[in-house]
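Researcher: Sequence recovery benchmark, item below. Answer with residues only.
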């Protein structure tokens, strides 16, 4: 189980992952979390994604994560194309590696009708 966190600079793993994979520390990092600043061990890992893409040699910090074993941060996300859509009320996110194209929804013309604006009301006393 993993969380994708665009607000996290790096990737983090739990002690459970370290123990189950038999990982050995490769360094130490100072990490900044909601709980404050602390030093923690780092590990060099290969991260396999559900779409069968492997991101090699990721420096992952040991972290206390609630409800998940891995936090995927921007050190992985910024290597590929990441998009979140919400068509018909169904939220879907996609990730591909390597990056293939620039996804810029602002520069693409809208294929839907423009939103009608509501005329502004006159203020009392003016």
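Model:
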């Amino acid at each position: 189980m993993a969380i994708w966190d665009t607000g996290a600079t790096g990737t983090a793993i739990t002690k459970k992952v370290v123990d189950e994979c038999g990982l050995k520390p490769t360094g130490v990092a100072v990490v900044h979390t909601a709980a404050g600043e602390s030093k923690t061990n780092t590990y060099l890992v290969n991260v396999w994604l559900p779409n069968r893409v492997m991101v090699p040699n990721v420096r992952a910090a040991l972290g206390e994560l609630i409800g998940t074993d891995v936090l995927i941060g921007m050190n992985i996300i910024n290597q590929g194309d990441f998009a979140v859509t919400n068509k018909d009320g169904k939220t879907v996110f996609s990730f591909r590696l390597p990056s293939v194209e620039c996804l810029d929804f602002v520069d693409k013309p809208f294929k839907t009708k423009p939103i009608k604006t509501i005329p502004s009301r006159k203020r009392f006393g003016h």
